[in-house]
Amino acid sequence: MKKQVLSILFCLTIALTFSHDSIAQGTLIHYWNFNSFTGPVTLPAIASLPADFSLISSPVATWVYQPLPGTSPATYCDAYPTVSGNNDSVNIRMGAPEGNAFRARNPNDQMEILIYMPTTGYGNLQITYGCMTSSYTSGDSVNVFSYSVDSGATWITGGGGLSEWSDTGSLTFRRISLHVNDPAAYNSTKFVFRILLVGRNTGTSGNNRFDNVTLDGDVVNPVLNVNQVNNAANYKLYPNPVNNELSVNSNIDGSKNVVITNMVGQTVFSGTEEGLNFTLNTSILVSGVYCITIRENLTGNVSTSKFIKQ
To answer: Which domain holds residue 68?
Structure first.
């Protein structure tokens, strides 16, 4: 049986992550690395790219590049094959290699990037990505942000909902990270983040590139809007109370995402387990009561149970 070491979070600003950069949240929810995207996509066909990794299966997390309503589109978008000097290790997760980035070709002044990011069961959200511009003379100068909590029917463009509302271009990939402060975006199937490309983007040359786009968050209510199953019938925890090792036995095979939170809602462990049974090392957990949430990747069913660490 596979054993994994649990990592304690001492505050909400320390996260368990595979990133080169620290982030404020404990669970990676969605991740686009674009390494399998080759393109080009000739517009007005809409470029629609599902996340390369996602904890939420429905609705599907999707990156969309499309014309703004009522406008003429850019010519195409494609994959940008990054090179070592691009600093494309920014925000790499899960051991993904440096590879392709998404390139929004010009003229893109009438285009929009929509990132559909369901947040079911998660709050305290952080959006992070790497971005570079092709040049300071023809590349896009500013990315302008907005977001929607109703699947794009209306857009929120100011106030305290985001920690920042725009960023400027850099000639190598620069890490952009912003916190979503709006509780209406939490535990939602309708959250959408939008990027508009502004400045120096009306010509036929120059563009911005995006890579390693992630959404992280903390578990707030993992069983809302998903399939609840009978915990006692499907998952057995022992020993409970536990000292050093917690065994999880079930009659459910396949891959499962496992999240453990303490009683103040902080994530202390997030990982993936395989098979009917697995064991978790709980030796470094402080004494107290914990909640373990198991989400079956095949069915989407979610089970929650509590255990006591002595």
So the answer is: 27-219
Do residues 31 and 213 lie in contact, with contact meaning Cβ atoms separated by under 8 Å? yes
Q: In the predicted model, what is the mean pLDDT of residues 38-49?
A: 81
Q: pLDDT digit string (tens) for 131-152?
A: 999 888 877 778 999 999 999 9
Q: Report whether 105 contacts 205 (CB < 8 A).
A: no
Which of 184, 219, 254 is the C-terminal boundary of a domain? 219
Give CA–CA dist 180/49, Å, rounded: 23
Q: Is the omega angle on the peptide bond into residue 73 within 30 degrees of 0, that is, cis?
A: no
Domain boundary among 161, 196, 219: 219
Is the domain of 67 the same as that of 195?
Answer: yes
Contact 29, 123 (CB under 8 A): no
Q: Are residues 171 and 242 in the same domain?
A: no
User: Residues 165, 51: one domain?
Assistant: yes
Positive or negative, the CA dihedral 272, 278, 284, 286 is positive
Is 49 within 8 Å of 37 (Cβ atoms)?
Answer: yes
Q: What is the pLDDT of residue 21?
A: 37
Say if residue 190's pLDDT is above 50: yes
As given in the structure block, the two tokens for residue 260 are 């453990």
Residue 235 and residue 181 share a domain: no
